[in-house]
Amino acid sequence: xxxxxxxxxxxxxxxxxxxxxxxxxxxxxxxxxxxxxxxxxxxxxxxxxxxxxxxxxxxxxxxxxxxxxxxxxxxxxxxxxxxxxxxxxxxxxxxxxxxxxxxxxxxxxxxxxxxxxxxxxxxxxxxxxxxxxxxxxxxxxxxxxxxxxxxxxxxxxxxxxxxxxxxxxxxxxxxxxxxxxxxxxxxxxxxxxxxxxxxx
Length: 200
Known about the structure:
Elements: H1 5-12, H2 30-42, H3 46-59, E1 64-67, E2 75-81, E3 85-86, E4 98-108, E5 113-125, E6 128-135, H4 141-158, E7 161-162, H5 165-168, H6 186-190
Parallel strand pairs: 5-7
Antiparallel strand pairs: 1-2, 2-4, 3-4, 4-5, 5-6
Helix pairs in contact: 3-4
């Protein structure tokens, strides 16, 4: 059954607040309690997610596969990523010295939806990342084949539905980690508020 932005908003309102009422209190908000409970239940199925990552390693042997799940986010996350590639020697002044990209698969723990997005990192000085660009749809051409594999595996394993971009970008009146209205979207509430922050 297709998901709607309004239905998903009613779901995420159970886990994220629209105010800072509990910021300076010792007690935990009801929303945070529900979020922790959701993770407690989800972590009982972590072995299934690890198996999905083993299958990705077998199907994508020329890529690195990593676990990127963080319980401050609302999703299991895996990464398919490259090693850093040197930018050609005829690079122009100001262009990066090297570049790497990652495809990230996210399965929400709050609703039966998933997303696959890409991140490209530019390195200018040694390991220092100066620029990170997010690609949701469309992905860069080199990201598309591994992204299709990740999407297919998540759908086959979990029966989750891909969240369309227009719904993912739906603005919501909630605070998700460091994201606040008007920047907060369903993507942030269902998956991650910092899509570029990966353990590469």
